[in-house]
Amino acid sequence: xxxxxxxxxxxxxxxxxxxxxxxxxxxxxxxxxxxxxxxxxxxxxxxxxxxxxxxxxxxxxxxxxxxxxxxxxxxxxxxxxxxxxxxxxxxxxxxxxxxxxxxxxxxxxxxxxxxxxxxxxxxxxxxxxxxxxxxxxxxxxxxxxxxxxxxxxxxxxxxxxxxxxxxxxxxxxxxxxxxxxxxxxxxxxxxxxxxxxxxxxxxxxxxxxxxxxxxxxxxxxxxxxxxxxxxxxxxxxxxxxxxxxxxxxxxxxxxxxxxxxxxxxxxxxxxxxxxxxxxxxxxxxxxxxx
Length: 290
Prior knowledge:
The protein contains five helices and 15 strands. It is α/β, with parallel strands linked by helices. Strands 5-4-3-2-1-15 form a six-stranded mixed β-sheet. Strands 6-7-8-10-13-14 form a six-stranded mixed β-sheet, covered by helices on one side. It is globular.
C-alpha cells in the first residue's frame, strides 16, 4: 500500500487522566471518519506535561505497557481498523520508569513499544528525574498499512536516531512530542525555536528519503507559564511541508501520503547509495579531541 492516510491528533490536556483518554479517543474517531488509517497521538497525552517540576507524586501517573491504556486503545484500533501510536508513561518495575510509545495494529494487536532514548534535563523539562533512557534500541513496527518507525520528542534533534530507524526499513518516521514556549519569551525567540524544531525534522525526511510526521500538544500549562506550540506537521521525503497545524488550536487532521515517493527521491537523490560507512567510526566518540 503506497497511499496512506495519516491522522494527527493535536490536543490540549487537563489534570484528569481519564478525561484525556476520552478526548484522545474522540480525536481518533474523528480522524477515522476522515479516512485515517494510521493515527498518532502526542507525547504523554493522558496527562498534563508533569516534567515541568520534580515531584514524586507524579510517578503515580505511570502504568504498565501493555496495560490499561493499551487495552483501551487496542479495542478502539480493532473496532475502527486503524493503527494507533500512543505515547505513555511506563512503569516497568518499582522505581523504574520510561517515556514509552506503544503501537497498536489495525486489528487491535499490540505490536510492541519504543522507549525514548534521548532524555532532556532543561528548565521546565526535568525528564531525567522521571525517565530511564530507553534500552530497547531503535524500533520499527510492521503494521497493516506501513512499516513505521517511532521516535519521541527530544529524539527529534538527533540525526543518528532518524538514520538508524530509517535504515531498519521505516517508511514513515513518527514523532509524538510535547514542546512549547515560555510565555515570558519574546516572539522573535519563539519563531526561531519553532523554525529550528521543524527544520531539523524536515532534514531527517530529506536525508533519509522518508515522510516525517510530528504531533505536538497545544495549550497553556504550568499555571499559564508554558504555551505548548502545537504546529504539528507532515513532511514529504524532500522536506516539503504537506500540512502544518496552528499554534493555538486543538486540531484533528488527516493527510494522505504516498510512500512510493521514497523510492523516487532516493533514486534521484541517492544519499543512501553514497554513504561512506567506512569513514563513520568517529561518530561513536563523545567528542573528537584530536
